[in-house]
Amino acid sequence: MPPPAPTLSISGANGSAAVGDTLSFTPTISGGTAPYTVTATGLPPGRAINNAATGLTTGAYTTAGTYSAIYTVRDSGSPQQTAIFSRTVTVTAAASARPRPASCSPRRGCAFQS
């Protein structure tokens, strides 16, 4: 009888982003028996798992707030192992462009453009 597979685990760092960012995230998975299946709940709006075998998460952040995503990974061993990881992501509002002076004169002041 073969020895049991190493204990399955999943981990990663918390994150931060701004609305409109398209950063990707892939959790670290180790142990268990590949291939793996990764699912997630509580992802920020606009984000989704793009690759269920690796947990690659992509998409543009659309709404500011703090989100707690729960990632679950299942292996293909028998008996099947499951591991869970919670990742917090803080999404800030997108920086707004400040109007800048188009031209200034001592007599008329500044005309602004956005």
Can you give a write-up of this model?
- The protein is mostly beta strands.
- It contains no helices and 10 strands.
- The protein has strands at residues 9-11, 15-18, 28-30, 37-41, 48-51, 56-58, 65-74, 82-92, 100-105, 109-113.
- It has a 4-stranded mixed sheet, with no helix packed on it. The protein has a two-stranded antiparallel sheet with strand order 1-3.
- A hairpin with a 7-residue loop joins strand 7 (65-74) and strand 8 (82-92).
- The mean pLDDT is 89.
* Unreliable runs: none
| Biggest sheet character | 4 strands, mixed
Overall pLDDT metric: 89
Question: What Rg, in angstroms, do the CA atoms define?
Answer: 22 Å
By DSSP, the count of extended strands is 10
Strand content: over 45%
Structural class: mainly beta
Helix percentage: under 10%
- Note the gap between the termini: 71 Å
Number of helices: 0
Characteristics:
47% strand; mainly beta; 114 residues; 10 strands
